[in-house]
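Technical note accompanying the year-one report. For the benefit of new consortium partners, we illustrate the data format agreed upon in the data management plan: each record pairs a sequence with a structure-token string. No post-processing was applied to the example shown here.
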Amino acid sequence: MSVASAASVAYTHRFLAGLDFSEIFVLMAVLVGSLSVHEAAHAWAANRLGDPTARLLGRLSLNPAVHVDLIGTLIFPLVAITTGLPLIGWAKPVPVDFRHLRHPRRDFAMVAAAGPASNVLMAIAGAVVFMAVVDVATLRGGELMPSALLQFVMLNVLLAVFNMIPVPPLDGGNVLMGLLPAAGADLVDRVRPFGFLLLYGLMLSGVLSAVMRPVQRFVLGWLL
């Protein structure tokens, strides 16, 4: 099985509207970098818990080249950011071999949780730096650094919240499978082939936004 991580840039344009070319470039760079750390966190956790599969395949790396999917990581997010179309991006899934995990269901849930956890840590670190430099940068007339840091924080919060939605193949669905009894986990796993269809249904109906926005506002209010 693999750990699939998605980048919900479907809502990014709603709070980062009116970006110019340089800001779009920065946002894409932040997205690619953040997803690379996210995927490397999955690989790191799997390796620590006994499964070296991802490490042996070169996925225990911060190099974006090993994690980027041309369509899911670059094209879909870029189209979503520039047009506002409701598209969901993704990175290459990290392979996990259950046979090597010491406690397969529990450890797989921990591997899945490692990705969003890395986004939370990055958001916290970005917020600390943002609060430290924003006043100084503004006084000096420089706005690019505060803007980039703000995008970094907001996007990592978005990635963490979106990926923890309990719908497979998102990380939240895999975490849920590790928490439920075997019968419940099997039921959730049966949803996996239809996961993205379900996510688009929730997105287009407005349910996804209604669930995510309060969580995002709470986390961003706490950080900033």
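Partners are asked to follow this layout when depositing records. The chain has ten helices and four strands.
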